[in-house]
Amino acid sequence: MLSDLPDTLCFLNGDFSRVRDAKVSVLDRGFIFGDGVYEVLPAYGGRIFRFEQHMDRLDRSLAETRIPQPLTRARWLEIARQLMQSLAEATGATDQLVYIQITRGVARRDHVMPEGLTPTVFVMTSEMKPPSATQRSDGVACVTADDFRWQKAHIKSTSLLGSVFARQISADAGAVETIMFRDGWLSEGASSNVWVVRDGVVSGPPKDHLVLQGIRYDLIQALCAETGTRFELRRIAREEVLAADELLLSSATKEVLPVTLLDDSPVGTGRPGPIYQRLYAAYQGAKTRQLT
Ligand code: PDD
After folding, report:
1. Strand (E) positions, 19-175?
2. pTM for this one?
3. pLDDT digits 0-9 by tens, 114-123
């Protein structure tokens, strides 16, 4: 598998090196405990979409985990730009994902959070692999599962075994995402947020500790306002999801993506619906603004 690894540049603890060569300590708490946080920022033509919002969420994740913010925003941006430029020169990739990871640092193994560690800082970029033309025109299949993850889903933590398990349920079923329910209420996908459309209203679960507040949460609200579409956040029962006219996923890479098959049954008409078309078009417009 090592030969599959990209030979592109990354940033680790102050230095730029090849991804293949970058190494962290075996005692890094990210390795030992998954004790870290991360961000995935989409960039188009070398410019990051909604950079400030991603940085605000990174600050919130760091504050929740009591890891100090190691760099200024200007420095994060400088590093991301350098890596994006290097990847663009090497591969021609114009649209990219910037991955940032910060762990608590290196220490003797002990569950207690040690004081005064130097956080481990890692940044890499990769080519963005957007949904295929067929996925856009036909929609995608998803499956449902109980949300067995922990109760702090609002933190973008690198402790992702629950999400890995959740995603594998859909992978094993040949579907693109697992839509999860906690006690019968919609939470989110393994790595995306979920939106229900009924009678022209777009509904999403409340912004609480049970879901990751995707950067597309506020964006979808704004796109609904822009297109005159009703929008609300509230608890959504499983039955409502199964009876939806349309079902949408959102994430940095998926942008907004229609779900047309859920647990092998068609969603609504079984085709991408008008609200999807409207929000997708508005999303493409937003991508030409809010770039850093
Ligand atoms: N995942 N919910 C979960 C659990 C996620 O992991 C993600 C993003 C989202 C959508 O967030 P955003 O709109 O900010 O991308 C919702 C990223 C892309 C990942 O882990 O790769």
Report:
1. 36-44, 47-48, 96-103, 120-127, 140-146
2. 0.96
3. 999 999 999 9
